[in-house]
Amino acid sequence: MEQFNMGEVEDMFEDMADMMADQEDIQEMMGRNFGVDYDESELLDELNELDEEIIERNRIAAKEMEVERKLAEQEKQVRGVLYERIVKSSPPDCWIAGPLE
Question: Within 13 Å, how many C-alpha atoms sit on residue 96's CB side?
């Protein structure tokens, strides 16, 4: 038969009492009215403005990424053309192994 340590049981009850007191404090704080008056429609308008701002920033970022992709593709094409011109205008003993990258 297992024996109970009364000190441990008492500690457990004290811990439970502390947790219950903390829970009551939290519930009391959450139920308080802090005297902050607000207009829900104003808050919704501000939220909508923030949403629109985020959408606009994402649109701009997408455009910037597209421009960067196009520039990288153009740079790759230019490097290829330059390589071809170098190869065609140089004697074979001056050729390099591949396109500049």
Answer: 11
Long-range contacts of range 21-26, CB-CB < 8 Å, 24 or more positions apart?
none
Q: Does the pTM of the predicted model rise above 0.90?
A: no
Q: Could you tell me the residue ranges of all domains in the chain?
A: 42-101
Read off the pLDDT of residues 40-89 as tens digits, 9 standing for 90 and up.
899 999 999 999 999 999 999 999 999 999 999 999 999 988 888 877 77
Pair 56, 73: CB distance under 8 Å = no
86: closest CA among 97, 71, 74?
Answer: 97
Q: At a CB cut-off of 8 Å and minimum separation 6, what does 82 contact?
A: 100
